[in-house]
Amino acid sequence: MNATTPPVPTPQARPATLMSGADYRDSLRRYKPTVYVDGQLVDSVADAPSLRPGVNALAYTYDFARDPAMAPLALAMQSDRGLTVNRMAHINESAGDLLNKLEAVRLLCQETGCAQRYLMHDALNGIAQVSARLDDAKGGTEHRARFQAYLARVQDEDLSLGVAMTDAKGDRSKRPHQQANPDTYVHVVERNGKGIVISGTKAIVTGAPYMHELLVMPGRNMGAEDADFAVCCAVPIDAPGMTLVSRPAGRPGDKLEHGAALFSRRYGQATAVVIFDRVFVPWERVFYAGQDGEWEHSGVLTYSYATHHRHSCIAARAGFGDLLIGAGALMCEANGFDPGEKSNLREPMVELIKITEGFFACGVAASVYGTPDPYSGSFMPEPVFSNIGKLLMSTQIYDMHRLAHEVSGGLIVALPGPDEDHNPATAATLSEVLRANPAVPYDKRIEVARFIEDLTASYQGGWYSVISLHGGGSPAALKQEIWRNYPVGSKVELVERLLDRGVLHDETRAITRNRQPGRCCDTGCTVPGQPVMVALPESTRKQD
Question: For the CA atoms of 129, 525, 515, 494, what is the dihedral angle to 10 degrees?
């Protein structure tokens, strides 16, 4: 799909050095993290079979960025540095950047199912925003300068960063400082002239074993009593005192019920619990650590990151939806049917398309209506559309699986395992009786069936459902943000005006607190820093 946005400039000077997928694998071998998978200590992350599908997924993002045909989407111009960088390490400067990021993530996830690296983009943009706000509050430049120096290194070295945000949390009814075991949240245990020392536990860290560094961020708004828990910093993946307890990535095993998984043996996603045991972090890697009122800004970071990440999640699952749409159509053909001629197949196929493109359209709207952050100047997706798109995706992922099953028929569960393909007593008979469309060979039909089984009716299929539901925020969190940001007040005042009630806007009325300006398209080319949609002047919105 192509967004109707100006092409991202590819400057002739100062291009960043971009690693290839092979370079990325080699770079992992220079790190020695403490990683356990299925109870076994991993000697080399880059070479571990249990993690290979995840490493493959990240490696693909590197090769994608080096493809000249993908440059307008995969690369971005960081104008303050005059440098072309990988879009996953870019701070958004326009609504066009948001659209191009959305398209890039969708394409990456069409190939990999979940490219994972986009989380670093979302976190870097959130930290850029909170750093600027901290400087504004303190009347300085320290936080912005520290973040910019770190960002430059990430861009120059083309690093991959994991996001360690969700804490173990302990007793969910208690705040961090009230926990019987403080290590259920990551917190500062010591500050000195050289840096800070942190301890605690982060859960659900996506792709953690095969990242270069982790961005540690608070997972909730903090109060004054929780100041030590309001910490944001960057930690190398092999920092002393850090242990990663990870799930395997994908389904790389050799013997499964239906044979080697056609998709998830190649691409997958690991998640890890990360335990910090007095990990030292030098000040140049600390973006804030709770002191001098910094804890007050933890809510800004969680909100900013969540909005960016929900916007990205929309694109990621649209890429996954593309896989289901293509596989469903292939299965219809292999079964001997044309969905264009059979309404009982056309309707579920269109429903699958409607769901996928419906939540993706919310991502497009969130990009088009994106606005610059007043402190950092970086662009933020519109929060209502971001959260609605993520909510639609989260709650309809199960429908997407069901629809793929509906158009595919029962072969995906009835199909014998691949060992029968080589059984002289059964292979010939199976190849005859399980062939449907004469134009589609038996082996091609069963290949598609096993592909759909891997995506939707396997361990990996269930995994995609769970991460789609809870990754980036549960439905309850999304609904809270939609209600908090939606301009109900504008709708109330519209009806009151039509009813001639003559009620003036009152900021103290709960239902009229949020209002929305009118908008119109800007004219001519959209330049960096200029939104695609701009707010109309206040005077044009007032009623006589």
Answer: -170
Bridge-partner residues for 190, per DSSP?
197
- 3-state secondary structure (DSSP) of residue 276: strand
Read off the pTM. Answer: 0.89
306: left (phi over 0), alpha (psi -120 to 50) or beta: alpha
Query: What CA–CA distance (Å, rounded) separates 121 from 125?
Result: 6
- Placement of tokens 């993946």 in the chain: 237
CA pair distance 313, 319, nearest whole angstrom: 10
Residue 251, classed as helix, strand or coil, is: coil
- For residue 169 the two structure tokens come to 């949390």
| Residue 453 near residue 258 (C-beta atoms within 8 A) | yes
Q: Would the pLDDT of 54 be above 80? A: yes
Bridge partners of 279?
Answer: 198
Residue type, position 207, single letter: G
| Residue 219 contacts residue 165 (beta carbons within 8 Å) | yes
Q: What is the DSSP secondary structure assignment for residue 124, as one 8-state letter? A: H
Task: For tokens 């290590």, name the residue.
Answer: 183
* Segment 328-344, tens digit of pLDDT: 999 999 889 898 888 99
3-class DSSP assignment, residue 76: strand
Q: Within 10 Å of residue 21's Cβ, how many Cβ atoms?
A: 18
Question: Are 82 and 14 a contacting pair, CB within 8 Å?
Answer: yes
Task: Tell me the residue type at 364.
Answer: V
- 162 φ, ψ (degrees, to nearest 5): -90, 160
Joined tokens for residue 6: 């100006």
- Report residue 492 as tokens: 């109330």
pLDDT for the residue 397: 94
Phi-psi region of 94 (alpha: psi -120 to 50; beta: other; left: phi over 0): beta
b/e code 71-104 from CB counts within 10 Å (16+ = b): bbbbbbbbeeeebbbbbbbbbbbbbbbbbbbbbb
